[in-house]
Design goal:
The complex is a heterodimer of chains A (223) and B (591).
Chain A (H helix, E strand, L loop, with lengths): L1 H40 L1 H4 L3 E4 L2 E5 L23 E4 L5 E2 L21 H17 L10 H4 L9 E2 L1 H5 L2 H8 L3 H10 L1 E2 L10 E3 H11 L10
Antiparallel strand pairs in A: 1-2, 3-4, 5-7, 6-7
Helix pairs in contact in A: 6-7
Chain B lengths: L1 H25 L7 H15 L9 H24 L16 H12 L9 H4 L2 H31 L9 H27 L9 E4 L5 E4 L4 H10 L20 H35 L8 H17 L1 H26 L3 H5 L17 H14 L14 H13 L8 H21 L4 E2 L2 E2 L2 H27 L1 H4 L7 H15 L14 H30 L16 H34 L2
Antiparallel strand pairs in B: 1-2, 3-4
Helix pairs in contact in B: 1-9, 2-7, 3-4, 3-6, 3-19, 4-19, 6-7, 6-8, 6-9, 6-19, 7-8, 7-9, 8-9, 9-11, 9-13, 10-11, 11-13, 11-14, 11-20, 13-14, 14-18, 14-20, 15-16, 15-20, 16-18, 16-19, 18-19, 18-20
Classes of the chains: A mainly alpha (223), B mainly alpha (591).
């Protein structure tokens, strides 16, 4: 009897101590070690790959942004507007479309393919896009541009989705179409080894270059 | 298409060395890294009072597993409830309420990682590390330990010793999970996954607005999330976010890290069973081999060497199921959404709603099939937005729960089906069924049947409860047939310990937190205990000699039989609900 109690006690002790030890090892030592190594080897990426121009942080390389001006390249629609917001004097925060901003989030509307709300949202986006891009034919719009990404933070659009926006951007920015096309090409990435993934255009970096050419970023544009 | 084939080929190349390494760890054999790890383990054993050489029988092993998991649940629950303290909490997150904490802690301990909270607003960095990251390691290690014990039982070197749970737990954590995580984690950071302790960034955009960008110790969580087939994201939208998964390369790293260890466990199984057979055959004299036979033997021996004879059959069966699922999902997504075609949006790119441009249709379909086959539950696209048939594949693979499966658990489930398959075949040829040289008798069959029936029972009974009550119906956000799919998916995901979701479901309510918590708990522990019991019962039997009437289970035809048995059972249990959910939705959408 005494033996079995002692066994039980020993078993419990092992369970408790090993749990605490592993908790500290895996939950504290490991993340701190990885942070240290990352800061040492890849300080920029570990810090979130932020893009700074003239001392001002404009965004992060891997996180998309919402753009509304005609002279900028537009991103895909996002239920969370890429967490872009404005603040009024009382500190109330709003998404660019005027709805209240509840705080940082990610995701999508999660509309099923059969959900009528999805068709409505896409139809609305389609009409307003055609209105602002009169040169574009409806059937030429690629599906990615008017559908929401999974994360709501997609930094990319497809090359075709960028291509059809060139006339609008050129007209609104005063840059030539060729110039805009060059900027887009410079910020287009091919597939990994020519095989894996898809071709992507980084919307934010394109727009930073557009802003620079338009002189919106101030004089000293060293980079 | 080509990139999918290459992705799979690369996997088959990589899984073999990992499998061999894991086999060495599981079988307690010497590896090149022993000098370092022996010391680390020695310290942990000493502090914890573990005697690694002390064997346990299956009951002691199961009790140790359950007891240790219970302690971990308690520790984690306490931290979630007090996470609002100022430690590692730059974003000022409050404490988590009870039912959500209950759900979260069960979810992470059972390797499910169903998340009814959103990481960016629900957890402090302290919880992300001490609870979530920690649980991702130990739940994976617990599952793997259970699997290793199960294999030891089947391989049957001794009559009742299945190993020492604590030693297995520690060895798997320190020798497999931690080193892989450090290397993989650094690769992820190199590609742009953040790893820091600063609060969320607020930047000034080009258009004069502000943007808040989530950050934190993401990479550490990200790598073990996949390696441990856990799946719970740092952020709400999981691996679809460019913060957790910024490039196609991180996507592949995450994909492979979730696929490697479950595949490796099949190899471990094959090799450990082979060891025993070799031991048996060593005493027999070698037979002379003719020239022709020799060549045939050489060719077959490469795959045998890689996967082990019995492992190869299981691996092939799992592979067939996986490829069929991937094919259906990829094709369904490439077809696009006819409802959007109707409003005038060109669908030649495929169904892009809920998918990221950098992954496209192919890598999204791949990730979707892998995450539900390997029961990880991480997502790189939103499963709720998948086309009906594209969404049926992840649902089906969680219902099957044998297509590789998470951390060893899939292997154990597949062995259940293998036992069932030899039983059915045995009935047909009128022989006592045998598997791995042991007679399968009444006790094993009863336990196997029980084990196989629990899974559909949990899914279907809870789904019936949900659609029968107001509290359950309130969660559905997409009407019509898709609503039933949402409910089914949530419980299939819970019972299979997967953790992905049709995320539209409004699931952070008392009803959903409690019911899914129970489904996860029973789905995990009932199965493990029953499977250990089967192993324990098989161990005690003596090996039977092979005769002319023995059904060989190491052939390709047995793989095919296995695939059919799995599909037939799935059809019998799940076809009615599938036809009311995704199939009906497909028919109406394409009508």
């Amino acid at each position: 009897m005494k033996d079995s109690v002692r066994k039980m006690f020993h078993g419990t002790r092992q369970a408790v101590v090993v749990s605490v030890v592993l908790m500290l090892l895996c939950g504290l030592v490991f993340p701190c070690l990885l942070t240290g190594l990352s800061m040492l080897l890849f300080p920029d990426q570990a810090g979130g790959s932020l893009i700074k121009v003239n001392g001002q942080t404009l965004g992060a390389e891997h996180v998309g942004q919402e753009f509304t001006e005609d002279f900028y390249l537009w991103s895909r629609p996002s239920a969370y507007h890429y967490n872009v917001y404005t603040e009024d004097e009382e500190g109330n925060r709003f998404y660019p479309d005027g709805t209240p901003f509840p705080g940082v989030a990610s995701g999508s509307n999660n509309y099923a393919p059969s959900n009528p709300a999805l068709s409505e949202r896409v139809e609305e986006a389609l009409e307003s896009f055609l209105e602002k891009n009169p040169d574009v034919r409806r059937e030429d719009i690629p599906a990615d541009l008017l559908t929401a990404s999974g994360s709501g933070l997609d930094p990319h659009i497809s090359p075709k989705a960028a291509e059809i926006q060139i006339p609008r951007i050129a007209k609104a920015s005063g840059l030539s179409e060729g110039e805009v096309r060059d900027i887009i090409d410079d910020n287009t990435k091919g597939k990994l080894l020519g095989l894996f993934g898809e071709e992507t255009v980084n919307v934010l970096t394109v727009n930073i270059e557009i802003a620079r050419r338009m002189g919106l970023l101030g004089e000293d544009t060293a980079s | 298409m080509l990139q999918l084939i290459l992705t799979i080929v690369l996997y088959l190349v990589m899984v073999v060395p990992v499998g061999i390494y894991v086999y060495h760890i599981a079988a307690g054999k010497h590896t090149f890294a022993d000098p370092v790890f022996d010391r680390v383990d020695g310290v942990i054993y000493k502090i914890s009072g573990i005697r690694p050489q002390t064997g346990m029988n299956w009951k002691q092993y199961a009790a140790a597993l359950l007891g240790t998991n219970a302690v971990m649940i308690l520790l984690g629950y306490i931290i979630l409830r007090i996470q609002s303290i100022g430690l590692f909490n730059p974003n000022g997150i409050g404490s988590m309420e009870e039912s959500l904490s209950f759900n979260t802690i069960i979810s992470f301990m059972t390797n499910t990682n169903l998340q009814h909270y959103s990481g960016e607003s629900g957890l402090s960095y302290l919880s992300q590390m001490l609870v979530i990251t920690f649980m991702m390691f130990v739940s994976a290690a617990s599952g793997y330990a259970g699997c290793v014990a199960f294999i030891r039982g089947l391989a049957g070197k001794t009559k009742d010793d299945v190993g020492n749970f604590f030693a297995d737990l520690v060895r798997i954590t320190t020798r497999v999970l931690l080193p892989f995580s450090i290397v993989g984690g650094l690769l992820l950071v190199w590609q742009g996954v953040p790893q820091n302790f600063s609060g969320n960034f607020i930047v000034d955009t080009l258009e004069g607005a502000k943007q808040v960008i989530a950050t934190g110790p993401v990479a550490a969580l990200e790598i073990i999330k996949h390696l441990g087939t856990n799946g719970g994201g740092f952020l709400g939208a999981n691996s679809s976010t460019p913060i957790e998964n910024p490039t196609i390369l991180t996507n592949l790293i995450e994909l492979y890290s979730m696929m490697l260890l479950p595949g490796a466990s099949v190899i471990t199984f094959g090799k450990m069973v082979r060891d025993r057979k070799r031991g048996n055959e060593a005493s027999k004299a070698a037979l002379p081999v003719s020239e022709k036979g020799k060549r045939g033997k050489l060719r077959s021996s490469l795959t045998v060497w890689m996967y082990g004879r019995e492992g190869r059959t299981i691996f092939a069966a799992m592979g067939i199921l996986f490829v069929i699922g991937l094919g259906v999902c990829f094709r369904a997504e490439s077809q696009g959404n006819p409802a959007l075609e109707e409003v005038g949006l060109n669908q030649s790119m495929g169904s892009m709603e809920g998918k990221e441009v950098r992954f496209g249709i192919a890598q999204s379909a791949m990730f979707t099939t892998a995450t539900t086959s390997f029961t990880t539950g991480t997502v790189n696209n939103m499963h709720d937005t998948l086309t009906p048939l594209g969404g049926m594949i992840p649902l089906l693979h969680m219902m099957l729960n044998v297509v590789f499966g998470g951390k060893g658990v899939g292997l154990m489930n597949m062995i259940m089906y293998a036992i069932l398959a030899v039983f059915i075949c045995g009935l047909m040829i009128g022989r006592t069924p045998e598997y791995l040289g042991k007679k399968i008798e009444g006790r094993e069959m009863k336990l196997t049947a029980l084990c196989i029936i629990i899974h559909p029972l949990l899914i279907l009974a809870f789904s019936a409860l949900a659609v029968g009550t107001q509290a359950g119906l309130a969660g559905i956000t997409n009407g019509g047939f898709h609503g039933l799919s949402q409910v089914l998916y949530e419980f299939a995901s819970s019972a299979a310990n997967n953790g992905s979701g049709f995320e539209g479901l409004a699931d952070n309510t008392l009803f959903w937190n409690i019911t899914t918590g129970l489904a996860m708990f029973f789905g995990r522990y009932l199965s493990i205990v029953i499977q250990l019991a089967i192993a324990g019962s098989l161990m005690k039997k003596s090996f039977v000699n092979e005769s002319a009437g023995t059904l060989h289970t190491d052939t390709f035809s047995f793989s095919v039989i296995l695939v059919f048995v799995v599909y037939i059972l799935a059809a019998l249990t799940f076809f009615p609900v599938l036809s009311l959910g995704p199939i009906a939705e497909h028919l109406t959408l394409w009508a």
